[in-house]
Protein backbone atom coordinates (compact mmCIF):
# COMPACT_ATOMS: atom_id res chain seq x y z
CA UNK A 1 0.00 0.00 0.00
CA UNK A 2 1.16 3.52 -0.78
CA UNK A 3 -0.92 4.90 2.08
CA UNK A 4 -0.79 3.53 5.61
CA UNK A 5 -3.48 3.32 8.27
CA UNK A 6 -1.25 5.39 10.53
CA UNK A 7 -1.16 8.21 7.99
CA UNK A 8 -4.95 8.12 7.66
CA UNK A 9 -5.43 8.18 11.44
CA UNK A 10 -3.09 11.16 11.75
CA UNK A 11 -4.91 13.04 8.98
CA UNK A 12 -8.29 12.35 10.59
CA UNK A 13 -7.01 13.67 13.91
CA UNK A 14 -5.78 16.85 12.21
CA UNK A 15 -9.20 17.30 10.59
CA UNK A 16 -10.96 16.58 13.88
CA UNK A 17 -9.01 19.09 15.96
CA UNK A 18 -8.19 21.64 13.25
CA UNK A 19 -4.78 22.02 14.85
CA UNK A 20 -1.64 19.89 14.51
CA UNK A 21 -0.54 20.50 18.10
CA UNK A 22 -3.89 19.40 19.54
CA UNK A 23 -3.96 16.38 17.22
CA UNK A 24 -0.48 15.32 18.33
CA UNK A 25 -1.46 15.61 21.99
CA UNK A 26 -4.57 13.53 21.45
CA UNK A 27 -2.60 10.78 19.69
CA UNK A 28 0.45 11.05 21.99
CA UNK A 29 2.83 11.57 19.08
CA UNK A 30 5.00 14.46 17.98
CA UNK A 31 3.62 17.31 15.89
CA UNK A 32 6.20 16.66 13.11
CA UNK A 33 4.81 13.12 12.85
CA UNK A 34 1.35 14.51 12.10
CA UNK A 35 2.77 17.02 9.65
CA UNK A 36 4.84 14.37 7.86
CA UNK A 37 1.84 12.05 7.50
CA UNK A 38 -0.17 14.86 5.91
CA UNK A 39 2.69 15.70 3.55
CA UNK A 40 3.01 12.05 2.50
CA UNK A 41 -0.72 11.81 1.77
CA UNK A 42 -0.63 15.03 -0.24
CA UNK A 43 2.40 13.80 -2.20
CA UNK A 44 0.57 10.57 -2.98
CA UNK A 45 -2.46 12.40 -4.38
CA UNK A 46 -0.51 15.29 -5.82
CA UNK A 47 -3.06 17.66 -4.28
CA UNK A 48 -3.49 19.57 -1.04
CA UNK A 49 -5.85 18.11 1.55
CA UNK A 50 -5.21 20.79 4.15
CA UNK A 51 -4.66 24.53 4.10
CA UNK A 52 -1.99 25.38 6.67
CA UNK A 53 -2.58 28.37 8.90
CA UNK A 54 -0.32 30.23 11.27
CA UNK A 55 -0.03 28.69 14.70
CA UNK A 56 -0.30 25.05 13.46
CA UNK A 57 -3.95 25.44 12.50
CA UNK A 58 -5.27 23.53 9.49
CA UNK A 59 -8.51 23.39 7.54
CA UNK A 60 -9.62 20.89 4.92
CA UNK A 61 -9.72 21.72 1.24
CA UNK A 62 -12.72 20.52 -0.79
CA UNK A 63 -10.59 17.59 -1.98
CA UNK A 64 -9.45 17.00 1.58
CA UNK A 65 -13.05 16.62 2.72
CA UNK A 66 -13.52 13.83 0.16
CA UNK A 67 -10.31 12.15 1.37
CA UNK A 68 -11.44 12.34 5.01
CA UNK A 69 -14.79 10.74 4.19
CA UNK A 70 -13.09 7.81 2.48
CA UNK A 71 -10.47 7.54 5.24
CA UNK A 72 -13.20 7.24 7.85
CA UNK A 73 -14.83 4.46 5.86
CA UNK A 74 -11.51 2.58 5.53
CA UNK A 75 -10.71 2.84 9.24
CA UNK A 76 -14.24 1.81 10.23
CA UNK A 77 -13.92 -1.30 8.06
CA UNK A 78 -10.51 -2.10 9.56
CA UNK A 79 -11.98 -1.72 13.03
CA UNK A 80 -14.81 -4.10 12.12
CA UNK A 81 -12.29 -6.58 10.72
CA UNK A 82 -10.16 -6.47 13.87
CA UNK A 83 -13.27 -7.01 16.00
CA UNK A 84 -13.72 -10.44 14.38
CA UNK A 85 -10.69 -11.60 16.36
CA UNK A 86 -12.64 -11.24 19.61
CA UNK A 87 -16.40 -10.99 19.27
CA UNK A 88 -16.70 -10.48 23.04
CA UNK A 89 -14.60 -7.30 23.09
CA UNK A 90 -16.42 -4.07 23.89
CA UNK A 91 -16.37 -1.29 21.27
CA UNK A 92 -13.50 1.16 21.59
CA UNK A 93 -12.25 4.25 19.80
CA UNK A 94 -12.67 8.01 19.83
CA UNK A 95 -14.74 10.60 18.01
CA UNK A 96 -15.83 14.23 18.29
CA UNK A 97 -19.34 15.20 19.35
CA UNK A 98 -20.52 18.67 18.42
CA UNK A 99 -23.40 19.88 20.57
CA UNK A 100 -25.48 23.04 20.41
CA UNK A 101 -24.17 25.24 23.22
CA UNK A 102 -27.49 25.73 25.06
CA UNK A 103 -28.30 22.02 24.92
CA UNK A 104 -24.92 20.61 25.98
CA UNK A 105 -25.02 21.34 29.75
CA UNK A 106 -28.38 19.62 30.24
CA UNK A 107 -27.69 16.27 28.62
CA UNK A 108 -24.11 15.66 27.45
CA UNK A 109 -22.40 15.06 30.86
CA UNK A 110 -25.11 12.61 31.91
CA UNK A 111 -24.98 10.77 28.57
CA UNK A 112 -21.17 10.55 28.69
CA UNK A 113 -21.26 9.21 32.26
CA UNK A 114 -23.71 6.55 31.11
CA UNK A 115 -21.51 5.68 28.12
CA UNK A 116 -18.34 5.53 30.24
CA UNK A 117 -19.98 3.07 32.64
CA UNK A 118 -20.75 0.63 29.82
CA UNK A 119 -17.93 1.29 27.35
CA UNK A 120 -14.86 2.62 29.20
CA UNK A 121 -12.61 2.31 26.12
CA UNK A 122 -14.64 4.88 24.13
CA UNK A 123 -13.35 8.47 24.29
CA UNK A 124 -15.58 11.37 23.23
CA UNK A 125 -14.31 14.91 22.68
CA UNK A 126 -17.12 17.46 23.08
CA UNK A 127 -17.26 20.73 21.18
CA UNK A 128 -19.94 23.29 21.98
CA UNK A 129 -21.18 24.94 18.80
CA UNK A 130 -23.69 27.56 17.71
CA UNK A 131 -26.31 27.12 15.02
CA UNK A 132 -24.04 29.04 12.64
CA UNK A 133 -21.09 26.65 13.04
CA UNK A 134 -22.35 23.17 13.85
CA UNK A 135 -23.34 22.37 10.26
CA UNK A 136 -19.99 23.56 8.93
CA UNK A 137 -18.15 21.44 11.47
CA UNK A 138 -19.98 18.36 10.20
CA UNK A 139 -19.15 19.27 6.62
CA UNK A 140 -15.44 19.84 7.17
CA UNK A 141 -14.90 16.76 9.35
CA UNK A 142 -14.14 18.60 12.59
CA UNK A 143 -17.23 17.00 14.15
CA UNK A 144 -18.25 13.36 13.66
CA UNK A 145 -21.71 13.51 15.23
CA UNK A 146 -23.84 16.54 16.12
CA UNK A 147 -26.49 16.84 18.84
CA UNK A 148 -28.67 19.86 18.19
CA UNK A 149 -32.05 21.33 17.42
CA UNK A 150 -33.18 21.02 13.82
CA UNK A 151 -31.79 24.41 12.82
CA UNK A 152 -28.81 25.27 10.63
CA UNK A 153 -27.95 21.71 9.61
CA UNK A 154 -27.06 20.96 5.97
CA UNK A 155 -29.39 18.82 3.87
CA UNK A 156 -26.56 16.35 3.27
CA UNK A 157 -26.62 14.90 6.80
CA UNK A 158 -28.48 11.86 8.05
CA UNK A 159 -30.49 12.46 11.22
CA UNK A 160 -32.00 10.52 14.11
CA UNK A 161 -34.87 12.32 15.84
CA UNK A 162 -34.59 12.10 19.63
CA UNK A 163 -37.64 14.09 20.74
CA UNK A 164 -39.96 16.95 19.84
CA UNK A 165 -40.61 19.93 22.10
CA UNK A 166 -43.18 22.70 22.15
CA UNK A 167 -41.97 26.25 22.88
CA UNK A 168 -42.76 27.62 26.33
CA UNK A 169 -42.97 31.10 27.80
CA UNK A 170 -40.46 32.23 30.45
CA UNK A 171 -41.88 34.75 32.92
CA UNK A 172 -40.84 36.43 36.17
CA UNK A 173 -42.32 34.45 39.05
CA UNK A 174 -44.59 37.34 40.12
CA UNK A 175 -45.69 38.31 36.60
CA UNK A 176 -49.43 38.79 36.02
CA UNK A 177 -49.41 35.90 33.52
CA UNK A 178 -47.47 33.56 35.80
CA UNK A 179 -50.64 32.31 37.48
CA UNK A 180 -52.19 31.24 34.18
CA UNK A 181 -52.24 27.62 33.00
CA UNK A 182 -51.17 28.78 29.53
CA UNK A 183 -50.49 32.08 27.76
CA UNK A 184 -50.93 33.25 24.17
CA UNK A 185 -48.35 34.84 21.91
CA UNK A 186 -50.62 37.88 21.59
CA UNK A 187 -50.36 38.38 25.37
CA UNK A 188 -46.61 37.84 25.32
CA UNK A 189 -46.22 40.30 22.44
CA UNK A 190 -47.28 43.13 24.73
CA UNK A 191 -44.10 42.63 26.80
CA UNK A 192 -40.45 43.24 25.87
CA UNK A 193 -39.16 40.02 24.28
CA UNK A 194 -35.73 38.82 25.47
CA UNK A 195 -33.99 36.67 22.84
CA UNK A 196 -30.58 35.02 22.58
CA UNK A 197 -28.34 36.56 19.95
CA UNK A 198 -27.57 33.21 18.30
CA UNK A 199 -27.76 32.82 14.54
CA UNK A 200 -31.13 31.37 13.50
CA UNK A 201 -32.40 31.21 17.10
CA UNK A 202 -33.83 34.73 17.37
CA UNK A 203 -35.13 34.56 13.79
CA UNK A 204 -36.95 31.34 14.64
CA UNK A 205 -38.59 32.88 17.71
CA UNK A 206 -39.78 35.91 15.74
CA UNK A 207 -41.18 33.57 13.10
CA UNK A 208 -43.37 31.94 15.76
CA UNK A 209 -44.97 35.31 16.47
CA UNK A 210 -45.29 35.97 12.73
CA UNK A 211 -47.19 32.69 12.30
CA UNK A 212 -49.85 34.01 14.69
CA UNK A 213 -49.97 37.44 13.04
CA UNK A 214 -48.52 39.35 16.00
CA UNK A 215 -45.33 41.34 16.57
CA UNK A 216 -43.55 41.87 19.91
CA UNK A 217 -43.73 45.43 21.18
CA UNK A 218 -39.96 45.45 21.64
CA UNK A 219 -37.17 42.88 21.26
CA UNK A 220 -33.87 42.73 23.14
CA UNK A 221 -31.07 40.28 22.36
CA UNK A 222 -28.68 38.71 24.87
CA UNK A 223 -25.55 36.64 24.41
CA UNK A 224 -26.61 33.40 26.10
CA UNK A 225 -29.55 31.38 27.37
CA UNK A 226 -28.57 31.89 31.00
CA UNK A 227 -28.37 35.67 30.56
CA UNK A 228 -31.76 35.52 28.87
CA UNK A 229 -33.21 33.69 31.90
CA UNK A 230 -31.64 36.16 34.33
CA UNK A 231 -33.01 39.13 32.38
CA UNK A 232 -36.49 37.58 32.52
CA UNK A 233 -36.22 36.80 36.23
CA UNK A 234 -35.22 40.42 36.90
CA UNK A 235 -38.28 41.84 35.10
CA UNK A 236 -36.64 43.09 31.90
CA UNK A 237 -39.16 41.17 29.79
CA UNK A 238 -40.38 37.70 28.86
CA UNK A 239 -38.89 34.98 26.63
CA UNK A 240 -39.89 32.03 24.47
CA UNK A 241 -37.61 29.01 24.67
CA UNK A 242 -37.39 25.26 24.12
CA UNK A 243 -34.57 24.44 26.57
CA UNK A 244 -35.83 23.33 29.96
CA UNK A 245 -33.28 23.23 32.79
CA UNK A 246 -34.19 21.49 36.04
CA UNK A 247 -34.44 24.54 38.28
CA UNK A 248 -36.64 27.60 37.82
CA UNK A 249 -34.05 29.94 39.34
CA UNK A 250 -31.68 32.21 37.39
CA UNK A 251 -27.92 32.37 37.95
CA UNK A 252 -28.38 35.26 40.39
CA UNK A 253 -30.97 33.36 42.42
CA UNK A 254 -34.12 35.05 41.13
CA UNK A 255 -37.20 32.85 40.52
CA UNK A 256 -38.91 32.51 37.15
CA UNK A 257 -41.64 30.25 35.81
CA UNK A 258 -42.35 28.38 32.58
CA UNK A 259 -45.82 28.30 31.05
CA UNK A 260 -47.16 26.47 27.97
CA UNK A 261 -48.16 28.59 24.99
CA UNK A 262 -51.81 28.15 24.05
CA UNK A 263 -51.37 28.88 20.32
CA UNK A 264 -50.91 25.91 17.98
CA UNK A 265 -47.25 26.10 17.02
CA UNK A 266 -44.86 23.75 15.23
CA UNK A 267 -42.79 21.50 17.47
CA UNK A 268 -38.99 21.73 17.44
CA UNK A 269 -36.96 18.55 17.08
CA UNK A 270 -33.81 17.58 18.92
CA UNK A 271 -31.74 15.21 16.83
CA UNK A 272 -28.45 13.54 16.15
CA UNK A 273 -26.85 14.34 12.80
CA UNK A 274 -23.94 12.72 10.99
CA UNK A 275 -22.53 12.70 7.47
CA UNK A 276 -24.60 10.23 5.46
CA UNK A 277 -21.56 9.48 3.25
CA UNK A 278 -19.36 8.32 6.14
CA UNK A 279 -19.55 4.90 7.75
CA UNK A 280 -20.22 5.03 11.48
CA UNK A 281 -17.72 3.27 13.70
CA UNK A 282 -18.74 0.75 16.35
CA UNK A 283 -18.06 3.38 19.03
CA UNK A 284 -20.32 5.89 17.29
CA UNK A 285 -23.09 3.33 16.83
CA UNK A 286 -23.24 2.41 20.53
CA UNK A 287 -23.08 6.11 21.44
CA UNK A 288 -26.12 6.79 19.25
CA UNK A 289 -28.03 3.99 20.99
CA UNK A 290 -27.11 5.39 24.42
CA UNK A 291 -28.27 8.87 23.42
CA UNK A 292 -31.58 7.50 22.15
CA UNK A 293 -32.09 5.57 25.38
CA UNK A 294 -31.27 8.62 27.53
CA UNK A 295 -33.75 10.84 25.74
CA UNK A 296 -36.45 8.15 25.87
CA UNK A 297 -36.02 7.91 29.65
CA UNK A 298 -35.36 11.53 30.62
CA UNK A 299 -36.67 14.16 28.19
CA UNK A 300 -40.35 15.15 28.38
CA UNK A 301 -42.99 14.44 25.78
CA UNK A 302 -44.33 17.46 23.84
CA UNK A 303 -47.43 17.59 26.05
CA UNK A 304 -45.52 17.62 29.33
CA UNK A 305 -45.57 20.89 31.23
CA UNK A 306 -42.91 19.93 33.75
CA UNK A 307 -39.12 19.86 33.31
CA UNK A 308 -37.60 16.52 32.43
CA UNK A 309 -37.49 13.75 34.98
CA UNK A 310 -34.52 13.08 37.21
CA UNK A 311 -32.12 10.97 35.10
CA UNK A 312 -31.21 7.48 36.16
CA UNK A 313 -27.81 7.10 37.77
CA UNK A 314 -25.05 6.07 35.38
CA UNK A 315 -23.88 2.49 35.87
Automatic annotation (TrEMBL):
A Pfam family hit: HTH_1
Domain HTH lysR-type residue range list: 3-61
PROSITE patterns tied to this protein: HTH_LYSR
Superkingdom in the source lineage: Bacteria
Coiled-coil intervals: none
Membrane-spanning intervals of the chain: none
Keywords assigned: DNA-binding, Transcription, Transcription regulation
Family in the record: Belongs to the LysR transcriptional regulatory family.
Name of the featured protein: LysR substrate-binding domain-containing protein
Organism of this sequence: Dokdonella ginsengisoli
UniProt lineage: Bacteria, Pseudomonadati, Pseudomonadota, Gammaproteobacteria, Lysobacterales
